[in-house]
Amino acid sequence: MIRILLLIIGYIIGNIETGYIFGKLNKMDIRNYGSGNAGATNTLRVLGPKAGLIVFLGDFCKSLIPCLVVRYIFRDNVSLSYMYMLYIGLGVVLGHNFPFYLGFKGGKGVASTAGIIMALDIRIAAVCLAAFIVIVAFTRYVSLASIVVMIIFIGMSHLLVKTNYGFANGSSPMEFRLLVVVIGFLSIFMHRANIKRLLSGTENKIGKKV
């Protein structure tokens, strides 16, 4: 029941669609422009760097803060605190990607997943950030960088699970592993159209005017 409750709470929080709200403040529905999603990258393309940063921070914090709160509440059981943190984080990403009041058309969950990664392990977050910056700098493809970051997140989480996150005492980390895979591949799934465009060479590069 706690797991389900955390998913529901996370989903409700995730429905705070920063990009949509910021767009409405500028008298527009951001989903009708650019790539058609309500995330930070599309906001960056349509409304500029300042707007993109604001939306990114909003989507980042709406998962980071609940994840840290859950970790603190259940701090007496380390492995369970990380597990529950992933549940509320997954709920936030689902709410962000599929907001019920917007016809289930939201963003792609990259910024919100980044908040989960930061709450989980600052080492993984640092590697993911470095990889993201390098890939964007050399290719100018935000989508490619986002996909690679999710793969790094999944891989490093699996490598560290036996010596971190409270599972070293013999308890099974299988549920933890599964949640990490679901969260990571959910974002990759949301980039399926981008993957097709990357393969065909028609993907938009960052900085391209909309």
Q: Radius of gyration over alpha carbons?
A: 17 Å
Please work out how many helical segments DSSP would assign: 10
Query: Number of folding domains?
Result: 1
How many beta-strand elements? 0
Main sheet overview: none
What fraction, in percent, of the residue positions are helical? over 70%
Q: Return the string of H and E elements.
A: HHHHHHHHHH
Q: Kindly estimate the percentage of residues that lie in beta strands according to DSSP.
A: under 5%
Q: What would the average pLDDT be, to the nearest integer? A: 91
N→C terminal distance: 45 Å
The low-confidence runs, each spanning 5 or more residues with pLDDT under 50, are none
Shape type? globular
Structural class: mainly alpha
Membrane topology: Multi-pass membrane protein
Transmembrane segments: 5-23, 86-104, 110-134, 141-161, 176-195
Catalytic activity: an acyl phosphate + sn-glycerol 3-phosphate = a 1-acyl-sn-glycero-3-phosphate + phosphate
Protein name: Glycerol-3-phosphate acyltransferase
